[in-house]
Design brief:
The chain is mainly β. The chain has no helices and 19 strands. Strands 1-2-3-4 form a four-stranded antiparallel β-sheet, with no helix packed on it.
Length: 202
């Protein structure tokens, strides 16, 4: 696919790939690579991660400190879905069972948003800038810190550092996850690699 500026977050739904691209959301046909639509986001500064619910509504975070907003694509139009004091520099998004989980970089907390009521609650405090966010099949969160730390957050909120490459200045950007193999994929951004690690529990 060509014709993009700085693609970041991605999500797949119904044969379509949705990609954030600075100040617009782009919809791409997975089979052909053809761009099906571009949805400009008025006021957007730094569109980042993308998540889709079972209805096909697409959620996009704007990680800019000046425009801390979560947008939603609904019926072909982008709208401001959530903003306010509880949402500051949102980055990683993950949707599951009526809840949108938000890696809130502004305060280092994982927050859960009920998509019906838009009520926000704190799930865990990671204590650092959150980039990637995944909820695995066992109910553990896997989070990455842009500076180079990848952590596991247990159900009680306990944070365990899986890997820390901050001293080596190797970043941990958004995460990928293969549940069948319990493999985490970590793009290192400036280091120009994708690292793969298998999770194992005693």
């Amino acid at each position: 696919v060509t014709g993009l500026n700085a693609p970041k977050g991605m999500a797949i739904f119904d044969g379509k790939l949705y990609v954030s691209d600075i100040d617009r959301l782009v919809c791409i046909d997975l089979q052909t690579g053809k761009i099906l639509g571009r949805y400009p986001v008025e006021g957007a500064q730094f569109l980042n991660d993308v998540a889709v619910d079972e209805k096909g509504y697409v959620y996009v975070s704007d990680s800019s400190g000046r425009n801390s907003v979560i947008y939603r694509l609904k019926d072909g139009r982008m709208e401001v879905w959530l903003k306010g004091r509880e949402i500051k520099s949102p980055n990683g998004l993950f949707y599951k069972d009526g809840t949108l989980y938000v890696g809130n970089s502004g305060d280092g907390k994982i927050k859960a948003v009920d998509v019906k009521t838009r009520r926000v609650r704190i799930v865990a405090s990671v204590g650092s800038m959150i980039d990637g966010l995944i909820l695995d099949e066992k109910g553990f969160f896997i989070v990455s810190d842009w500076r180079g730390r990848t952590s596991l957050v247990e159900k009680d909120g306990t944070v365990k550092v899986l890997m820390d490459t901050t001293a080596d200045r190797v970043n941990s950007a958004d995460l990928g996850y293969i549940p069948e193999k319990r493999v985490i994929l970590i793009p290192t951004f400036f280091d120009n690699r994708i690292l793969a690690y298998r999770l194992s529990f005693k």
